[in-house]
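Weekly structure sync - notes
Attendees: PM, LS, DV (DV joined late)
Agenda: review two folding runs queued last week.

Item 1: First target. Sequence and structure tokens pasted below for the record.
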Amino acid sequence: MNKTAVITGATSGFGLATAREFAAAGWNLVLTGRRQQRLDEIGKELADKTQVATLVMDVCDSVAVLKAFDELAAPFDKIDLLINNAGLALGTQGAQECDLADWHTMIDTNIKGLTTVTHALLPRLIESGEGSSIINIGSIAGSWPYPGGNVYCGTKAFVEQFSLALRCDLAGTGVRVSCLAPGLSESEFTLVRTGGDQQAYDNLYNGAHAIQPDDIASTLLWLANQPSHLNINTLEIMPVRQSWSPFAIKRDI
């Protein structure tokens, strides 16, 4: 195939499943993450299927991101696909009870980090031209707010609007832009959000038949493999057992 995909946040959850899916399909991979040991393990696991480059980076560190991508050598210097997967949610409290540092971390990762990686790789994607793609991982939280979502919902609304605006700017370059917005998904993401609370994790997913990382990975491969004249603008996915809640009404009783 000789196509190369960059996947951020590739050490767990959606990112790890997507790395495995794309490796099996013959894509060369540039995988990023903050954990050296996990990246080394993933690189070793996938080395017999494809060519893999691993970059230890925190997407919040703009200088490190730009330096790492600037130093990519062949065959990884030609980029055909960017999957902006790195992101997180922290806390489930109402806004009046949240830790300001958690808010800033979500903004730095989900907005600043995503835009930094995108800006760094845009020249290479434009050079690749027709059929190249950017796929940003949003969330249904960007469209459907819920108690305790506050800043996380805001960051994912940004991802969706940034994706649409980026598509406007890239018209005529051949670069496609999509936003994939999953609903309830079972992964390490929730353990991070709850500070490692396994009971909260189990309660959330018990009997829900939630989206699995492999479901998202196969969807991402489908998006990337669409004919070059087609662009999937936004794609929202929910488990069958998840739907919208009634409007919350607080009554004087």
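Item 2: Second target, run right after the first with the same settings.
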Amino acid sequence: MIKEVRLKKIQEYINEKESVSLDELVSVFNVSKNTIRRDVQELLKTGDYKKIYGGVTVNHENKKGLDSFKERSVRNQEAKQLIGQIAGNLVNDGDVIFIDSGTTTIEMFEHIKNKKITIITNHIELIMKCIPHDNISLICIGGILERQTNSLGNINNLELLNIYNINKAFMSSTGISIRNGVTNASPIESKLKESVVRKCNEVYLLVDHSKFDKQGLITYCKLDEINYLVTDKVPNSTYRDFFNENHIKMIYK
């Protein structure tokens, strides 16, 4: 593997994992430790990463907000597709559902596109996908364009949610933790998410394994406010105990 390609792949790997050891990078990329040290040293010069004991981590202080929708959509893609399939199978004909903006929730579409349902959303890509399907009644929450999330948001439009009886909400998150709850990077979007969680009786949180013990700028609900967790891997015992104690059902394959 040529150096430029390897550097790009190492960068993508660190962004996905948040923090990695040098030994892990040696094993994953099958190169010597000296080579990894040199590669990491070059990445440190960008300011996007910080050196830690025995490894390297993402420098969030230097990050300029949320990565673009396109950048995030290629991370953990197989996990997101699996979660989207699981969540899509939970939707039944006649359901009125809210689908949150996000690179995981969009993966539901292929598994719900032939169902006779009503979708409420601010997710621009999802809106475009739904337009050709007459079996889907589409209610769009408009507002300000959030380019990094491919969504629309406006706190003045939240009263629209009070009109409709939403029986299932499929939510996304920048990161979750027991201490900080379910988090998000956008202040405008967070208000919408908060309102949906309070409005809906069945809240499904769609997060892959990389989102655990991570956090975004704003907490939009506590972790015990969700009803179902849809993920790709069994979480650790701390989370399993928390979900059991709070009657949150875990759904995974």
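Discussion on item 2: The longest helix spans residues 3-17.
Action: LS to circulate a short write-up before next sync.
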